[in-house]
């Protein structure tokens, strides 16, 4: 059952990642700044933080739902490989300021969502 939950969650996460990317394809800054990746990674971090908060608060979440959301959905939705490739392309293109901005903002936002929910949980 866990394998199926991961499989289904991963599929939903991947399709959601594709949808975010498609929605932002025509965005004005798409060619300059990898906004779709930033948004996908932030939202995946938020989902994972919420699942973690749910468990920290002592709520019961069946293992297949944990696997669906934490491993499957977040694994399929977030994209460290694309983040790395896009940063490499910014570096190769000489866009050092945007590169640094992307790295700092991406990591800070994803970290911040965990910090906020951790504080909310009082953990």
Give the mean pLDDT: 91
State Rg: 16 Å
Unreliable runs: none
Order of helices and strands: HHHHH
**Count of extended strands:** 0
Overall morphology: globular
Main sheet overview: none
Number of H- or I-type helical stretches: 5
Task: List the defining traits of the structure above.
mainly alpha; 5 helices; 0% strand; 123 residues
Commentary on this structure:
With 123 residues, the chain is mostly helical. The protein has one domain. The chain contains 5 helices and no strands. The chain has helices at residues 2-23, 35-56, 63-77, 80-92, 96-121. The radius of gyration is 16 Å and the shape is globular. The two termini are 31 Å apart.
Fold blueprint:
Layout (H helix, E strand, L loop, with lengths): L1 H22 L11 H22 L6 H15 L2 H13 L3 H26 L2
Helix pairs in contact: 1-2, 1-3, 2-3, 2-5, 4-5
Task: Produce a short descriptive summary.
The protein is mainly α. It has helices spanning 2-23, 35-56, 63-77, 80-92, 96-121.
């Amino acid at each position: 059952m866990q394998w199926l939950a991961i499989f289904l969650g991963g599929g939903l996460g991947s399709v959601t990642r594709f949808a975010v990317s498609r929605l932002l394809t025509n965005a004005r800054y798409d060619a300059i700044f990898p906004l779709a990746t930033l948004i996908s990674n932030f939202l995946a971090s938020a989902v994972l933080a919420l699942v973690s908060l749910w468990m920290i608060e002592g709520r019961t979440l069946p293992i297949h739902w944990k696997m669906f959301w934490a491993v499957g959905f977040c694994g399929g939705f977030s994209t460290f490989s694309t983040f790395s490739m896009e940063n490499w392309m910014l570096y190769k293109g000489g866009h050092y300021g945007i590169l640094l901005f992307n790295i700092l903002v991406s990591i800070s936002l994803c970290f911040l969502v965990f910090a906020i929910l951790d504080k909310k949980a009082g953990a």
